Amino acid sequence: MQRILNLEGAINLRELGGYPTKDGTTIKYNKLLRSGDISNLTNKSLKYLKNYGLKFVLDFRSENEQQMWSDVNSDFYRVYSDPVYPLTGNGDKLANAINQGDYSYLGLIYQSVVLDKHGQAAYKMLFDLMLENDQEHQSLLFHCAAGKDRTGIGALLILKALGVDDETITKDYLLTNLMYLNRAEIEKTLNAKTGDADINKMNMTKGDLESITSIFKAIEHYYGSFENYLDKALGIDHDKLLRLKELYTE
User: Fold this and answer.
1) For residue 58, how many C-alpha atoms fall within 13 Å in the half-sphere facing its CB?
2) Which stretches within the chain are classed as H helix?
3) 151: confidence class by pLDDT, cuts 50, 70, 90
4) pTM for this structure?
5) What pLDDT, on the 0 to 100 scale, is given for residue 96?
6) Is residue 177 within 8 Å of residue 206, measured between CB atoms?
7) What family name appears in the similarity comment (predicted)?
């Protein structure tokens, strides 16, 4: 199975299946897709996604982005609006408290997102939809604009919850940099003058190892363990976590 799906009208669309877990299982194919903008999907791409089993589309973009570049509507999936931004601000304070400015631009933002109450609510919706996605031949796609930051955090949380090791999670995140070799096309779609300046800047900043590992540091610092974070911040207790592993690994 291909990891990178070069569908017309999609940016940075990737399969999350096939990764091994520490439990000796593998993440199932045809269950989870991560992506950037999908506002330009062609009929050919929609046909592929229908055959893939797509039923749920979760959109992490801001309301402004969703209005400017609306997801293509279709009769075989439902789009759920789930903006990660604007954050409430409590995550920024927590991130700065443990770093004193030591982390990169992206690293501090990522930490703020996973510690912020609004950010946590957005990713709680992702996990809740994953539990709803409980039928055979049925899949979920989550996306933002670039498929790197808001989507990258979502992929990290999913892979970590399902038992994938940190090195593999980091490699999946850094794959985005390969997808961005065609900078002109990316900039045209993601760096619009009508867009939010902070989001534009994030979209055009390359992913790096330190930024993604900073998330692990923040969660461990404030929650003690990732399992505790899942439970307290995202509402995924031990039983729900077992159910997720049952649904998404084999």
Assistant:
1) 26
2) 43-52, 63-68, 90-99, 105-115, 117-132, 150-161, 166-179, 183-190, 197-203, 209-223, 226-234, 238-248
3) very high
4) 0.89
5) 87
6) yes
7) Belongs to the protein-tyrosine phosphatase family.
Tokens of 57: 């589309």
Phi, psi of 54 (to 5 degrees): -60, 125
How far apart (Å, rounded) are the C-alpha atoms in residues 156 and 56? 19
Separation between Cα atoms, residue 152 and residue 172, nearest integer Å = 9
Alpha-carbon Rg for the chain in angstroms: 17
Q: Which residue has the tokens 């940016």?
A: 11
In 3D, which of 45, 41, 2, 6 has the Cα closest to residue 179? Answer: 6
Structural domains in the chain, CATH included, are 14-248 (3.90.190.10)
Pairing of strands 78-81, 54-59: parallel
Supply the pLDDT for residue 207: 58
Q: What is the model's pLDDT at position 154?
A: 98
d(CA 23, CA 218): 25
pLDDT of 113 over the 70 cut: yes
